[in-house]
Amino acid sequence: MKTTLVILAALVPWLGGCVSTAPQWESNFGDAARQARATQVIDPQAPSRNTGLAATDGKAVAGAMKGYADSYGYAVKEAKPPTLSIGTTGSK
């Protein structure tokens, strides 16, 4: 019992010395990542000015897609509604 207390009494100051430096290291944890991210942001106030999605109707988008495809010589196919086909052979 006495030897256990002596060993614990010797280990407590040794462990206490290791713990005292940890708060100094942790106070700067993540600073490099935050600084790197901040240097890559052009306008930090942009999220607060978000007004939502731009309103564009379907005809304008379809016209823009057709114009883009025509400029490269692609043919734009008209979208056809899906049809339901049930395969039957007529034999039993």
List the keywords:
mainly alpha, single chain, elongated, 92 residues
Structure description:
The protein has helices spanning 2-19, 22-26, 31-40, 58-71. With 92 residues, the chain is mainly alpha-helical. It is elongated and about 95 Å long.
The description of the largest β-sheet is: none
Query: What percent of residues adopt helix (DSSP H or I)?
Result: 40-55%
Broad shape: elongated
Rg computed from alpha carbons, rounded to a whole number of angstroms: 35 Å
Task: Produce the secondary structure layout.
Layout: H1 2-19, H2 22-26, H3 31-40, H4 58-71
Précis, in short:
The chain has 92 residues and is mainly alpha-helical.
